[in-house]
Amino acid sequence: MRILSAALALSFALAGLGGAGAATRIKDVSSVEGVRDNQLIGYGLVIGLQGTGDTLRNSPFTEQAMQSMLDRMGISARGVPLRARNVAAVAVTANLPAFAGIGARIDVNVASLGDATSLRGGTLLITPLASMDGKTYAVAQGQLAVTGLTAAGAAESVTEGVPTGARIPNGALVERPAPGRLDTLDSFVLALDNPDFTTASRIADAINARFAEGKRPIAEERDLGTVVVRRPARLNAARFLGMVGELPIEPDTAARVVVDQRSGTVVIGRNVQISTVAVTQGNLTVRVTENPVVSQPAPFSEGETVVLPRTDVSVESSGGHLAVVSGTDLETLVQGLNRMGMRPTDIIAVLQAIKTAGALQADLVIQ
């Protein structure tokens, strides 16, 4: 989001960023504490690769996994050297959604563990996925979808993307539901994505205005990041949380200016204000040009032809006019900076100087 033109500032104003804040649903700025995904991990084998698998000499764990798999299938491979290049050891990860039922399908990510060069065309063998408690919650298997590719010849190779990472959409079946039940909870804690005392108070007020029975409130802000809500007896937990999530509120945000010096991006929050300050900004350009000349000796002389240096130095100064910048909202501030014709790098330098002078009434975050 670059603030370079008055048209962009106008689009901010039309979107409501320059004036009053727009209403937002509670579920878009908060989440229910404890209702979250659960991370799963497993170790598996990918087969069917076209000579791009692990080198078993360099990846002994791949050979051990193959021997263990063959032993479980009743095939004895102990003591037999394996030289297959169509197998790769992989780590399989997935996120188990909250309250996912048995038989539900989830996506899995696959990444190579050994020295395989590509997983394209491979198939993941059945792989148990466990959580930190050691219990298996899902089982993954299926054809890999690889977006990267690699091609190599005798003297050159080409690699696009990451061919050693893959994904299997709906590649795992849930075998065990995540612990916890929603219908047994009588109270919930809403965790704010961007903690703020004002936002927490507004969320509690909106819930009480909609669901409070008589004069007894059911929601109360505990701190700047959480709101405790008691479930009404007449509503089940799922329906109640769905109704709470749809309630509109106007979140409050701290005044903040975020600067990314690498890309020259400047993002200014809606509540940023600048005290009246005079700013001058100009560009000093120094050009150094080398124009060497050749010195030729006279005919039949004993002199030598030499190259003599000749340097031209010019100095140009542009801009440097003094302007008064002050802003009570985003639109006024952006228009004031654009009126001075600044580039992103100039705006970054000016904002840093204004912050040092104490005129920027916001946090300046430099990335």
From TrEMBL:
Matches recorded under NCBIfam families: PRK05303.1
Q: Does the keyword RNA-binding apply?
A: no
Organism taxonomic ancestry: Bacteria, Pseudomonadati, Pseudomonadota, Alphaproteobacteria, Hyphomicrobiales
State which gene encodes it: flgI
Alphabetically, the GO molecular function entries are: structural molecule activity
A Gene Ontology annotation in the biological process aspect, one of them, is: bacterial-type flagellum-dependent cell motility
Q: What's the name of the protein?
A: Flagellar P-ring protein
Principal place of residence: other
- List the Pfam families hit by this protein, alphabetically: FlgI
Give the species: Prosthecomicrobium pneumaticum
Q: Which domain of life is it from?
A: Bacteria
Q: How does it assemble?
A: The basal body constitutes a major portion of the flagellar organelle and consists of four rings (L,P,S, and M) mounted on a central rod.
The family line of this record is:
Belongs to the FlgI family.
Q: Which GO terms describe its cellular component?
A: bacterial-type flagellum basal body, distal rod, P ring; outer membrane-bounded periplasmic space
- HAMAP family tied to this protein: FlgI
Q: What are the alphabetically sorted keywords of the record?
A: Bacterial flagellum, Cell projection, Cilium, Flagellum, Periplasm, Signal
Q: What does this protein do?
A: Assembles around the rod to form the L-ring and probably protects the motor/basal body from shearing forces during rotation.
Compartments (UniProt record): Bacterial flagellum basal body
So which residues are the signal peptide here? 1-22
